């Protein structure tokens, strides 16, 4: 847990540990108190986002103007390759989960591809039980109690098998994650014994993105995690070194991805999110091998 306080501003983030590792990458409890409402940028990642808020509803969309904004207390967001925009009220608290895309079938019986570039009221696919869960979590008084209740819900509502997911898609996703998004397409199709066109078709149907797009998301997530770790540790940040270590051609290549995914350069994103990152924000959306 981390906390930063400046005047009447506060950010607090609590890591939930490994609640259900094969379905949920990470869970973070959060509470913030700001001097005025603001807008947060939700960057693309290789995970679905499930948010259960205890205070004001989440208002989010993909248009900077907010014309497509949806408001709900339980939001489920699919994979996307452009920034999302989230309105942040002065006081907010809740839990945010990074859900493995291929686990969605096990949870609700539908592929993650149906949520591509969408953020919906999670009750549409998870049922009324998730609203009961949200209310119970809000009533509990400690984070350990909340995470324990959430883990019980996940275990009870997630099947033990990855039903309906083609094994080639599952293996391709694991391969992309293992290579942190830097493996070649030719090596990937050889690994899963499928043609590029067929694998791309299966990927888009199941996940809503192509293998190439998934690889870019993995590579960007690896770079974002490295940047966040450096910021939290107070170590000097060499973006050129980050770009090189994460498989980008050069620093400008990393900047292009940031401009697409975050709507700004890495330096501007760090400046805007500095206090949040220092306080422990920026949960993992994928676990990479050492």
UniProtKB/TrEMBL annotation:
<dbReference type="GO" id="GO:0003700">
    <property type="term" value="F:DNA-binding transcription factor activity"/>
</dbReference>
<dbReference type="InterPro" id="IPR018060">
    <property type="entry name" value="HTH_AraC"/>
</dbReference>
<dbReference type="GO" id="GO:0043565">
    <property type="term" value="F:sequence-specific DNA binding"/>
</dbReference>
<keyword id="KW-0804">Transcription</keyword>
<protein>
    <submittedName>
        <fullName>Helix-turn-helix domain-containing protein</fullName>
    </submittedName>
</protein>
<feature type="domain" description="HTH araC/xylS-type">
    <location>
        <begin position="184"/>
        <end position="272"/>
    </location>
</feature>
<dbReference type="Pfam" id="PF12833">
    <property type="entry name" value="HTH_18"/>
</dbReference>
<keyword id="KW-0238">DNA-binding</keyword>
<keyword id="KW-0805">Transcription regulation</keyword>
<dbReference type="InterPro" id="IPR050204">
    <property type="entry name" value="AraC_XylS_family_regulators"/>
</dbReference>
<dbReference type="InterPro" id="IPR009057">
    <property type="entry name" value="Homeodomain-like_sf"/>
</dbReference>
């Amino acid at each position: 847990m981390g906390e930063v306080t400046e005047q009447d501003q506060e950010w607090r983030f609590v890591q939930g540990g490994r609640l259900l590792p094969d379905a949920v990458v990470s869970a973070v409890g959060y509470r913030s108190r700001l001097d005025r409402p603001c807008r947060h940028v939700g960057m693309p990642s290789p995970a679905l986002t499930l948010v259960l808020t205890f205070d004001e509803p989440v208002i989010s969309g993909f248009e900077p103007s907010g014309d497509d904004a949806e408001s709900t207390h339980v939001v489920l967001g699919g994979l996307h390759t452009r920034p999302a925009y989230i309105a942040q009220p002065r006081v907010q608290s809740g839990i945010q989960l990074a859900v493995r895309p291929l686990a969605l079938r096990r949870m609700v019986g539908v592929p993650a591809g149906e949520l591509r570039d969408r953020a919906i009221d999670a009750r549409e696919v998870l049922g009324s039980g998730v609203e009961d869960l949200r209310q119970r979590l809000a009533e509990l008084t400690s984070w350990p109690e909340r995470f324990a209740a959430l883990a019980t819900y996940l275990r009870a509502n997630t099947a033990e098998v990855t039903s309906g997911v083609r094994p080639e898609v599952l293996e391709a996703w694991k391969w992309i994650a293992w290579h942190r998004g830097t493996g070649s397409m030719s090596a990937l199709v050889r690994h899963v014994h499928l043609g590029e066109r067929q694998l791309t078709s299966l990927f888009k149907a199941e996940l809503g993105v192509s293998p190439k797009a998934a690889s870019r998301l993995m590579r960007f997530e690896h770079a974002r995690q490295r940047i966040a770790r450096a910021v939290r540790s107070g170590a000097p940040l060499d973006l050129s070194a980050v770009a090189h270590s994460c498989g980008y051609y050069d620093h400008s290549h990393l900047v292009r991805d940031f401009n697409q995914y975050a709507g700004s350069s890495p330096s501007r994103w760090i400046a805007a999110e500095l206090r949040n990152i220092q306080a422990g924000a920026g949960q993992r959306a994928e676990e990479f091998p050492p």
